[in-house]
Structures are given as structure tokens and as C-alpha cells.
Amino acid sequence: MNFTSGGTDGPALDDVALTQLALGNNVWGSLAGIAAVQRVAELFHRAGWRVRRSSWTEFEVENACAALELCPGEPVLFSGFVDPDRIADLLEALNGTRLSFSVEFEDREGREHVHRSADWQG
């Protein structure tokens, strides 16, 4: 699939998430199992996320509660924002990719939480 900087159709951050956006980046992590960042973007697209190419090598994926920047590497790295009240929705979406993942999430109080898929080997 050829993603452009204009992006695909799909949900953008909803009004509830936008009210939390001032928190800034609050989620970081990695996705293992596929080395090509484009393939990871395709998985998100198939799951209904909006996808756009944000540089020659990076992609932005977005849905109603999260906006993530996917960066190439092995594993594929990501960072971005998730509505703090819907971290469980993001974790469910990551489980849906069937990739191993590790997520670091900073809540409203600045506490860090680490979540990993059941098969994480890191």
C-alpha cells in the first residue's frame, strides 16, 4: 500500500482525546516481529486507523484515542499520545496487531506504567 503525507481515511483524535492533548507525548514503545515500518503501518490501516507518511521513513497512525509516530528499526519504535483514560483501548489495538510489544505510559500524575504483550522477549 502506498501511503502519502495526506493520509488515509479513518478516525482522528476525538473531542475527548483532544481535551487531554496538552499532556503531550505520554506513550512510547516498540513492536517486534516485523522489521519493516511500512508493514506495521499497513497493520494499523487494516485495523481501521488513519495512516499518513510523515517522512521518507516514518508513519503517523491515529484513531479516536491515540496518535503514534512509527519509526523504523528492529524492533519498530513508536512514540506519541494516548488519552490517559483509554490506555486499555491502545493496548487492545496493539494486541490486535499480533506483534510482540512493550509500552511505557505516563499517566496524568507523571507515574510510569510498563505494559508488555504476553510473548514479549525483551
Description:
The protein has helices at residues 15-20, 37-46, 87-96, and strands spanning 27-32, 50-53, 59-62, 66-71, 76-82, 100-106, 112-116. By secondary structure, it is an alpha+beta fold. It has a seven-stranded antiparallel sheet, with helices on one face.
Helix and strand content put the structural class at alpha+beta
| Strand order, sheet with most strands | 2-3-4-5-1-6-7
Query: Helix amount, in percent?
Result: 10-25%
How much of the polypeptide forms β-strand, as a percent range?
25-35%
Biggest β-sheet strands, sense, barrel: 7 strands, antiparallel
Q: What series of H and E elements makes up the topology?
A: HEHEEEEHEE
Count of beta strands: 7
Unreliable sequence segments: none
Distance between the termini: 30 Å
The general outline is globular
Averaged pLDDT: 94
* Tally of contiguous helical segments: 3
Rg, nearest Å? 13 Å
Compose a concise summary of this entry.
The chain has 122 residues and is an alpha+beta fold. 21% of the residues lie in helices and 32% in strands.
Keywords:
3 helices; single chain; 21% helix; 122 residues; 7-stranded antiparallel sheet; 32% strand; alpha+beta
List the helices and strands and how they pair.
Layout: H1 15-20, E1 27-32, H2 37-46, E2 50-53, E3 59-62, E4 66-71, E5 76-82, H3 87-96, E6 100-106, E7 112-116
Antiparallel strand pairs: 1-5, 1-6, 2-3, 3-4, 4-5, 6-7
